[in-house]
Amino acid sequence: METSPTRVIAPSLLLFAILYGGMVPLGGFLGAKQVALGPLAVEAGIFPFLTLIAISSGIAELHGRVVADKLVRLGFIPLILAIILTVFVLQLPTDEGMYEPAKEAFPIIVGQGWRMMAAGILAYGVSVSLNVWIFARMTANNGRLLPLRGFIAAALSQIIDTLIFITVSFYGVRPIADLMLGQMIAKVVLSAVMVPLLVMAVVAIGRKLDANNPG
Q: Which residues cross the membrane (predicted)?
């Protein structure tokens, strides 16, 4: 009896898919802290989120837009599971012997209102998908202008991410214009600093892995 051939997954795709899946929920948790970078203030969740941007762009470069889009869609699984598990854990009774400051801080750090949860899911899906689309439209798969393409796609997607997240989370609750502008500036600056280097690293590592382990 004939057996169907085993489908080989490229080593680069396997590695970066694992990293991608871990970074998706991490962005939400680290976002509880505001960091000051000189005159700029931004949620710490931007660091894993820009890593997601760089990985998705790198996968688009290495394996094409269709594969990168699938990776983005699969990212909803750890994101939504993390939210469900967080809500579940917050409903459980707290051990009386738990360290007192941690007992008070835990629900503040990990708990989010339904609007922020919805905003996070929506902003993730739209902004990372947009990043892949823009990046892939700019002469993908040939290595040309890789840092510039990575920055442009990241910067534009982060502007949209900020518009969605801030509007859904805070519209009608607090003034959002200044908050939105500050977040956009901070994210674009960080995109310029981080994303070109990360995209080049992802592509270089991916090509080396796939060349050494062709399957």
A: 12-32, 44-62, 74-94, 114-136, 148-172, 184-205
DSSP secondary structure string for all residues of 151-170: HHHHHHHHHHHHHHHHHHHH
Bridge partners, 162 (sequence order)? none
Q: Going residue by residue through the chain, which has 215 residues, state the pLDDT in tens, using 9 for 90 and above.
A: 555 555 678 899 999 999 999 999 888 777 777 888 777 778 888 899 999 999 999 999 999 999 999 999 999 999 999 888 888 988 888 888 888 888 887 777 776 667 778 888 898 999 999 999 999 888 655 567 889 999 999 999 999 998 988 888 788 877 878 878 888 888 999 999 999 999 999 999 999 999 887 65
The phi, psi pair for 186, rounded to 5°, reads: -60, -45
| CA dist., res. 53 & res. 56, Å (int) | 5
What is the DSSP secondary structure assignment for residue 32, as one 8-state letter? Answer: T
| Cα 68 to Cα 74: distance, rounded to the nearest angstrom | 10
φ, ψ of residue 118 in degrees (nearest 5)? -65, -40
The dihedral of CA 134, 136, 139, 143: what is its sign?
Answer: positive
Give the Cα-Cα-Cα angle 117, 120, 125 (nearest 5 degrees).
130
